[in-house]
Design a protein that fits this description.
Layout: H1 16-19, H2 26-48, H3 53-68, H4 91-130, H5 135-149, H6 158-176, H7 188-196, H8 202-221, H9 232-248, H10 257-267, H11 285-303, H12 311-325, H13 330-344, H14 349-361, H15 370-373, H16 410-416
Length: 417
């Protein structure tokens, strides 16, 4: 019978929109997450976000450029290097910071930074929830990722790199999963032009795209069906894309001197001079958070076997290695790992165990509308050979406390009929 009455038989067509009462709205939950994150950043970051001297340096440089009406070509600040050639590799972000400072002072800069960070992490939470993760583990994972990157939460252009790298990585995941077409990656070109003139972290974005494109091409050579680069013309297209994105780093007022400045900075022995460029210390809270997230990520990744992992699932391993070398990269590992987990969990045994544990810890209760709040989305994605029905706990509108299992998969319906 159809799921129109109180009883729903296994194997029936079941419409979740009609039969399952709507619980707390996902948008309401995300709004609360954003507001809570924003308030915490505004309260605890009021002084912490302005402890880095680079925040004042960026604003001072932007103010000088706005006042002079031109970019820096020579060092106007230091005595020993006065008159020497200087490439200001973050000039666009500095001018933007100076404009905000003129309009609203340091409070305005703090407000913009906290809003950007809250928006970035709420967007990540939205991907986790859309992937089927329950609100509670989503909040806990989000707190861990925020703790991991908190040491780099300053009023600086690095905040933009955290968000832009997340967007780039999410687009790559959507391409490999088929949500986006591979041709849509060309929209990254104008994004990279802006990113180039704001922060040198665009090198990380370029490396991320190159890593995934290379992995897709290797998978295509191995005749892996799931590779977005399945045809030879797509391999050529990906090669052209990576080359075009690399060329965007030349679209700046300094030309080739800007990317050369980035490479020269990376080659400097900054670990002995600047704390944020030092290796990760496992005895500090940031080190604990990094290792906790790394262990969780690796457990979920191993849980996807024996199926062949997607190329994008392996990318956080590279950012983990970079974090071990420089703690400055910790927020970038946190963002990529969280976005990868949103895609991996529905395909991992860990995700199914987590779904079972969530329902055991939080049994359905009518007072919270558990029908749409506690959805076992991962269980209903299992193959019918392993799970004969699509598990979907729902709240019986008639008042029963029992959890019904509503069959929603066509293959399950055929096997049970």
């Amino acid at each position: 019978m159809r799921g129109e009455g109180k009883e729903v038989q296994v194997g029936s067509e079941y419409s979740s929109r009609q039969a399952v009462p709507r619980g707390p709205s996902r948008y309401f939950s995300l709004s609360l997450l954003f507001l809570l994150t924003w308030l915490l950043l505004m309260v605890f970051g009021r002084s912490a976000m302005l402890r880095d001297p680079g925040s004042f340096w960026h604003v001072a440089a932007g103010e000088k450029m706005l006042s002079a009406g031109q970019l820096f070509r020579e060092d106007p600040f230091s005595f020993t290097f006065a008159g020497r050639t200087w490439v200001d590799d973050q000039w666009l972000a500095e001018c933007g910071m100076a404009v905000v400072h003129r309009l609203a002072g340091w409070d305005g800069l703090l407000l913009v930074t906290a809003t950007l960070l809250a928006g970035i992490y709420t967007w990540i939470a939205a991907r986790l929830l859309r992937g089927g993760l329950h609100l509670l583990p989503t909040g806990l994972l989000l707190a861990l990722v925020i703790l991991l990157g908190s040491s780099q939460f300053h009023v600086r252009p690095l905040v933009l790199t955290i968000g832009l790298l997340g967007v780039t990585f999410a687009w790559l995941i959507d391409v490999e999963t088929g949500v986006k077409r591979i041709s849509q990656l060309w929209w990254l070109a104008p994004l990279f032009v802006v990113w180039t003139n704001m922060h040198g972290g665009v090198l990380g974005g370029l490396g991320t795209v190159g890593f995934c494109a290379g992995g897709w091409c290797v998978a295509a050579i191995g005749q892996h069906r799931a590779s977005p680069a399945g045809a030879f013309r797509r391999v050529l297209g990906l090669t052209a894309l990576v080359m075009a994105l690399a060329a965007t780093t030349l679209i700046n007022p300094y030309g080739l001197a800007l990317p050369l400045e980035w490479l020269e900075t990376l080659a400097m022995p900054l670990a002995k001079l600047i704390e944020e460029h030092a290796p990760l210390r496992l005895t500090e809270p940031i080190g604990w958070a990094t290792m906790t997230l790394a262990v969780g990520y690796l457990a979920v990744l191993v849980g996807t076997f024996p199926r062949r992992p997607r190329v994008v699932w392996l990318l956080p391993l590279a950012w983990l290695a970079f974090t071990l070398l420089r703690v400055r990269n910790a927020p970038l590992f946190g963002v990529t790992a969280a976005i990868a987990l949103a895609d991996m969990l529905p395909h991992s045994r860990v995700g199914r165990w987590l779904a079972l544990a969530t329902c055991l810890v939080f049994p359905a209760r009518r007072s919270v509308g558990a029908g749409s709040f506690f959805r076992w989305r991962w269980l209903r994605r299992r193959r019918c050979s392993k799970w004969p029905i699509s598990a979907y706990p729902w709240w019986d509108a008639a008042g029963s406390d029992s959890i019904r299992l509503a069959g929603r998969s066509r293959c399950c319906q055929n096997s049970t009929n």
